[in-house]
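Weekly modeling sync, notes
Attendees: AB, CL, MP (scribe)

Item 1: holo prediction request
CL wants a bound-state model with 1,3-dihydroxyacetonephosphate before deciding which constructs to order. AB pointed out that an apo prediction alone won't tell us much about the pocket. Agreed to run with the ligand included and paste results into these notes for async review.

Input as submitted:
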Amino acid sequence: MKKVIAANWKNNCSKDFINKYFSFFNANIKINQKSKKEIIFFPPDLYLDLVSQSIKDLSGINYGCQNLNINEDNTTLTGGSTSAMLEDMNCDYVIIGHSETRENEFNKSLKSKILLCKKMNIIFCVGENSLERQNNQTLKKIFSQLDELIESYFDNMSIIIAYEPVWAIGSGETPTLSNISQTHESIKKYIIQKLPSIKENDIIVLYGGSVTEKNASSILKTDFVDGVLVGGASLMAEEFTKICNIEF
Ligand code: 13P
C-alpha cells in the first residue's frame, strides 16, 4: 500500500515562502510513477492557487484545504470558504475535524461538512487530549469521534483518518511506536466492525503530532501506519523534502 505524507501549513505562508519552498522542494523531491507514496500540501486557502501552480509534477503530489465552512441554516457567512469554492480550486483533499478547529464545531456541523464533500477526499482527524490519555480514555474518545464519520458515510467515500493525539501536537512528544501501532489497528478494526463492506486495505490511517525528520522513518515503517500528517516540520522545505524522500 502507498504511504501518504501530508504537510499541514496551518496559518503560516507568504508568496515569498512558497516561491523559496518549491524552488528547493521541486529540485530535490524524488518521486515518479512507481513511487509508492503520495504527497499532499495543505496551505492556507488564500495560497491554494499559488501552491497548485508551484507543484512541479502533479502525479503523486496533490493539495487540499485545511477546513471548509458551512452555515447550517443556509444564511450567508462572511469570510467563509464553501465546499463548492474549494472544489472549484481543484482541492483533492480537505481536513475535517482537526483538534485546532474542533472546539468551535458541533458534531452536527462535522457531519454536515462530510456530506458536502462529493469531490474532495476527507482526512478526518481524531485523537485524545492529555486528560483523556491519563484516564485511559484514548480509544473511547477516538471511537466516539469515528462515529461522526461512520454515521455520515456514503458510498465510495474514501476513508482516511489522521490520528493526532492533541497532547502530541507541537509539543515534541509522541506516543511510543507500539502505542501508535495499536491505536491505528484499533481504528481500522472499529471501522470495519461498524462498516462491514469496507476492507482493511481501503482504510488509510495517518499519524500526526510532532513528526520530524528524526522520527518520521520509524513512524512510517510501523505496522498499521499508512502515512504522516506533519505540522511544524513541514514548514521547512529541506526537512519536509527529506521526510518525503524516505525509502520504504
Ligand atoms: P506538529 O507536527 O507541529 O505537531 O502538528 C501536527 C498537526 O497538527 C498536523 O495536522
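Recorded for review: The chain has a mean pLDDT of 94.
Action items: CL to compare against the apo run; MP to circulate these notes.
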